[in-house]
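Retro notes
What went well: the complex prediction finally ran end to end.
Inputs used:
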Amino acid sequence: MELNPELRRNLWLELGPQRLLLMPLVLGLLFALAYALADGVDAGRYAVAVTAAIAYGLVCVLWGMHLAGEAVLGEVAARTWDWQRMSSVAPWSMTWGKLLGSTLYPWYAALFCLPAFALGVASVPGVDLGWWLGMLLGGAVLAHALGLTWSLLLVRYRGDREAGALQRRSSAYLVLLLLLLFGLPALLDPLQQAGSWYGRETGSYFALGSLLLFAAWAVFGAYRLMRSELQFRNGPWAWLGFTAYLMGYLGGFVDPDHRLFACYLLGLGLTLVAAFAEPRDPLGLRRLGQALRERAWTRAQQAAPPWLLGLGVSVALAAALLLQPASACRHALCPEGSPDQRLLSVLLLLFVLRDLGLLGLVSLRGRSRRPEFATVIYLLVLYFVVPWLLDAVGAGQLTALFWPRADLAPAWAVGAAALGPGVLGVLLWRWRRDPGQPG
Amino acid sequence: MIRVDALTFDYPSKRALEQVGFALEPGSVTALVGPNGAGKTTLLRCIAGLDQPMRGRIEVAGIDVLEQPRAAHRELGYLSDFFGLYDSLSVRRGLDYIARSRHADPGVVPRVAARLGLAEYLERPAGVLSRGLRQRLAIAQAVVHGPRVLLLDEPASGLDPEARIRLGELFLELRASGMTLLVSSHILAELEQYADGMLILRDGRVLDQRDLGRQAPLRRLELRLATPAEKLDEVLAAQPGVGALQVGAQHAEFTFEGDAAAQHALLARLLEAGFQVCALAEQRASLQEAYLAQVRSDTAWN
């Protein structure tokens, strides 16, 4: 069988004789040092296990994530990405070739770290080695797949494709690092405690299963983005499927009475995440418009950006919430005794529309090098600073223009919330007519 | 071999190509010329299936590039203006990788390397090669899978004159093997060495597409006499195939419709008529002159 060309290239680059010798030598010295510094055989073995786990986390997980990201961004920087985009390698082969190929050396380190860890904890009572190995391996696959997915998202910044992708590179790694260091433990730690998921108890194996499923989704995400880079057309189903999975998964932790509303919040959140993560491509929207006018439904599905799909799902969920009987609002956003959670649903949708409009306008006007960061700053001012100032000068009613106020009269709250998306809609329409004029 | 119809490409705040249309014959070398920002690179990237236009149709070797970009890639080689190489890999391994990734037999690598003059550098890392050799390696990577169409964006930039001449010879070899080449360049004198057609782009539109006269039936001839002669204009005007005369006492330029034999017959008749002919030769308008003439006429109209 023919070896994956991408893997073969990485084998040539990554596993030279010097590097093959160096890694076990360094790790061996580290483990020996840890053992020697510990007090006694058992403590020594435990110290080796801890050292191996830390080395694995640093080398295989974190460095591996960086290398997986560089598997695409490095090609863009070296201007070799076009060679690969024109290759005949299938998207799946390219995805796993890059995932495994770029991280060969960290996996080589794992060959020493994992046995050292296993040997170290073998005699520790109560340690479930299988679970630990599953978490360590799953964590590395998740980190590598996230690195690759993230970098494939970055190269979608068109026009100044290379520059755009590379400018965002460092901040992207920072976000990924924070996600891994804080987000993952924050998600997995509570899962290991006894809790309830659709009425069933969660525990350590639930956490392991969750991690492995998210790793699989991350690999699938990288594959879908790779398809797009290699000129295959993607339909909307993968993103919709991921949205449904996430709603189903997280919905399991929520009280049944609040499940629909929680799914709605998640839908809005994913809409914003997708809008911020992907480049704002007016040409894609024009293609979508053209496909809709020509009633070319398949093309329209392929041209629909994920944020628009998320918005569609959110609107559908908002409609479902509106059809529910009026019930007291019991969410943090509603003050005690608020009349109706349906009002809050409408307000949230309007504010998300405003945020999307603002992001679109800041991006399309092209005056900001980092439109995502500029928009976040504007949103912080609009959501927090302005309402605080209005409150301070006794104009609390006006805060409904900047913050969802479900406690005010519905007509005023909705009217005020609709003003933002209305104004931004007009500005975007003006920009569309004349991209040169100031928005 | 390449057919482009009504191609329109937009950048977010600028239209880069507007209703571009042209067709290129198999086995031709066409110079793609135009000022900076004319849309040359965008056009090449669209033909290569690397960027998606807003509207239009592109066909390469009968394959719709926009519908089947992957199938078109099998027939296409593309060298970008700022290409990169796998500097840590040897020339052999770099070519081997590209061949395998394009589902070509890696056994062709030594042959392709020899054809591109890289045989003696096969074991050297790409990173240590000179600019000219890197250019050759990049072209080798673009043709290692045996494409029928080769697109080159500013292939000679940064090369010394000798390397440019060798590059031109290489393009002629590739054309002789049946390949169709579309080459963008700013250096018109260099394109003249190998181009037999010219496509002028300006402000995202095709200003002109012309045959540079290798097989054109209507040619421009220049006649020089050793001594001044009267009635040269009358005699020439009476000759079959002669038109658009510009005549001086010892010198004449005119269009001539006829092959080499007809040209020989014309020469014989002039000698017979007593004209002391010292030269009768085809005058090929230089690419630069043709380009500038077209651009000037377009500017005058605008």
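What we learned: Chain B has ten helices and 14 strands.
What to try next: split runs per interface for comparison.
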